[in-house]
Amino acid sequence: MSAIDIRTLDTVAGIHEAARVLDEVWGEQGTMPANILRALEHAGNYVVGLFDGDRMIGASAAFFGPPAERTMHSHITGIVPGQQGRGLGRHLKEHQRAWALERGVGRITWTFDPLVARNAYFNLAVLGARATEYLVDHYGAMADAVNRGDESDRLMVSWALAEPPAPTPTDAEIQAVVAVPDAIEHLRRSDPVAAAGWRRRVRDDLREHLASGRRIGGFDRRGYLIVG
Fold it and tell me: Is the pLDDT of residue 149 over 80?
């Protein structure tokens, strides 16, 4: 990790490169427009680039929530293809955590697609964020290569920065498990009907569990969300 550096983006050139990087990650022009990133940064929000030497290989943007809540919402974080498996997502999140704590923020929220197994594992099992809400078709139709052809359901999670990670339920505490597909991005392209079926099943199951007061408390790498 010695060559990896995370830098605040406070120049026009850096902002435009971050917008280009995010377009590369999502396969769509205008994923996070440079003018929006520039406005967020200039207003004092979190806008950074992840560098391997001089090359930007990732970017992240977050903005402050209601002042009384001392929160920050992490809207987008992306690392270019071919750079996964290096611990870079964890590196970015720890940087974001330290940056937020320095500014009096106690909690970071963000959303993720519960059908994406690697993100579920990272957010719930690695970081120990707590799932708080199921959002149906949260962004509406999305045209990028990752989400195209599917409804944009999301799980909202909350990461308490000064507290221990939310624990995964023990075997005795597990009340249910909810399976997710191995590779939903590929399934959307190869079999959109099957992908839509997965969306409906996971949506119905998770909403029912949350409505019953249960907690989505982790992810097992065998392919299912853990409910306790």
Answer: no
